Fold this sequence. Notes:
Order of helices and strands: HEHEEHEEEEEHH
CATH class: Alpha Beta
Number of helices: 5
Amino acid sequence: xxxxxxxxxxxxxxxxxxxxxxxxxxxxxxxxxxxxxxxxxxxxxxxxxxxxxxxxxxxxxxxxxxxxxxxxxxxxxxxxxxxxxxxxxxxxxxxxxxxxxxxxxxxxxxxxxxxxxxxxxxxxxxxxxxxxxxxxxxxxxxxxxxxxxxxxxxxxxxxxxxxxxxxxxxxxxxxxxxxxxxxxxxxxxxxxxxxxxxxxxxxxxxxxxxxxxxxxxxxxx
Length: 221
């Protein structure tokens, strides 16, 4: 375990808030549930194959659960690879206990070897650090070539001692859907704030505002 990530994981596993510490939140109606059954848009190019892989233990979810969501919801044929060990990130740790996303993906690519005609969606609970294209310096995901690395570290509400696992999964599904829309479907990130294909996502509240059934990807009239 690394730094505050270990604390967050311990809190997730606890599931037992202390009196006087639980904060209330007002979430948009579609934070947990889409307004209608989600579907890929007709202009999704469906390029290549989708492969999901994750660490041997993910807090609050599993790669199989995530793959099942995209298979049952979107009718996608998803291949699930065996889990990878955290040692693939050994060369990627920053002094502040974040993963340099470029080095982390390079380590993962070396571990996976040659995979032809695929888009890899890899999950981790470690915190990611991106040096460019984000004002905050951290991100929920980063991509190099065919590999996207997605982190659940900042998808949890660390101010709460009880984490809604369904909310965590919903946020992950939306972030992953956005990456699939970009790579597998070839869609532009120009949708409105409620869309999976909105232009930017910087905080968990941005994910909560997304309706997973909304896949608008172009400029709106």
